[in-house]
Write a structure and sequence with these properties.
By secondary structure, this protein is an all-alpha fold. Helix content is about 70%, strand content about 0%. It contains 18 helices and no strands. The chain has helices at about 1-15, 20-40, 50-65, 70-85, 95-110, 120-135, 135-155, 160-175, 180-185, 210, 215-230, 235-245, 250-255, 260-280, 285-300, 305-310, 315-330, 340-355. Helix 4 runs antiparallel to helix 5 and helix 14 (about 260-280) packs antiparallel against helix 15. The N and C termini lie far apart (about 60 Å).
Length: about 350
């Protein structure tokens, strides 16, 4: 019954939102949030996960409906209500709920997700996404970063589901189309609804470089992966590492000029150093396959100048040679059923061909 009630409200409220008084709008924003925070964590309430999820979907939908009509200060205040619990997080299972809320909110505002379900015009979707990027996304990222630090400082990780939610949230943010503010103001902007994808290179705007492309964040992600490499969050964290490795360094240099060569080269070197540190532990097949793909991503999206700018560039190339050799030796054995070896080698082959034919 609870699920159907929230499902009906999600379908009806967006179409009636403009008819509501400001006081009523604030009430509808508060209702689903109060519900999931007070009742959903209470196991004695016997609330189904689907009902909780639908309440969160309603919260994300009404938050978006009231976004453009609200002042910047009010938008920031509403997002702060959702992010504040993570600033005081302890890494407990209860933090999963706060992350689940933020995941659904980012999904609702992201043009690449099924946002047309709430019936807003395409222009409204793009406008809300553009202002959400400026007002909310940095605050959500920072709050998630606080929980990341908590996990890495904890002696044990007692809530793998919360780690998975955290990885999902970071991945959603890194899949964001950061060109939205300029796209939203351009003619034919509806095409932007399909331009944001995990298959596209990562290219945050320069004001995000010190947030995403910084040693502490990148190092913390790899540190968390090493702690969870043999646990259920491993796959999700590997996907996050793959997303980080798709940084479009070549376009960064093309857009910002040679002044960023040293910075871009440092990021490439940092990513490759962490990747080879993981490979040194001779982990499971999915790990080797993912790290080989990550190496290929760094090389293909980088430039020869950035790849060779690092002081340890020669050692990196030597490590790539040794990894390629070891995969070829393993693949030439009698067991031809190990398709992952050939797939891993293919990733490295792409990287070597790119380096051999690069003209930058």
């Amino acid at each position: 019954m609870i699920f159907h009630a929230f499902s009906t409200l999600t379908a009806v409220l967006p179409n009636r939102w403009h008819m509501l008084e400001a006081e009523d709008q604030n009430g509808w924003l508060s209702l689903p949030l109060d519900f999931v925070r007070r009742l959903a964590p209470d196991r004695s309430a016997k609330l189904s996960s689907s009902a909780r999820r639908q309440a969160i979907v309603l919260l994300a939908a009404v938050l978006k409906c009231g976004w453009l009509d609200a002042s910047d200060e009010l938008c920031i205040s509403r997002i702060s209500v959702l992010t504040e619990p993570l600033h005081a997080a302890s890494g407990s299972p209860e933090d999963e709920l706060h992350l689940e809320i933020l995941v659904h909110v980012v999904e609702q505002f992201s043009p690449r997700h099924d946002t047309t379900r709430i019936g807003l015009p395409v222009e409204a979707h793009l406008a809300t996404a553009a202002t959400f990027q400026n007002l909310a996304l940095p605050r959500i990222f920072h709050a998630a970063g606080c929980l990341l630090d908590v996990f890495n400082a904890a002696p044990t990780l007692d809530s793998p589901r919360t780690v998975i939610r955290l990885a999902n949230l970071f991945e959603l943010i890194l899949e964001w189309n950061f060109d939205l503010p300029s796209i939203a103001a351009a003619p034919g902007s509806s095409r932007a609804l399909q331009t944001s994808s995990s298959s596209c290179p990562l290219l945050p705007p320069q004001e995000w470089w010190e947030v995403i492309l910084c040693d502490p964040f990148i190092t913390a992600i790899f540190a968390l992966y090493r702690r969870c490499a043999d646990a259920s969050p491993a796959t999700h964290l590997r996907n996050l590492i793959l997303r980080l490795s798709s940084l479009d360094v070549a376009r960064m240099v093309a857009d910002a000029g040679s002044d960023v060569l040293a910075f871009a080269g440092h990021i490439d070197a940092l990513l490759l150093a962490h990747i080879f540190e993981i490979l040194a532990r001779s982990g499971p097949e999915p790990e080797v396959l993912a790290m080989a793909e990550a190496i290929s991503n760094v090389v293909v999206h980088g430039t020869w100048a950035t790849l060779t700018a690092a002081p340890d560039a020669e050692a990196t190339l030597a490590s790539m040679c040794e990894l390629t050799r070891s995969l070829l030796v393993a693949a030439s054995g009698d067991d031809l059923d190990d398709e992952w070896l050939f797939e891993a080698y293919d990733h490295l082959h792409v990287a070597w061909v790119h380096m051999a034919t690069s003209t930058d």
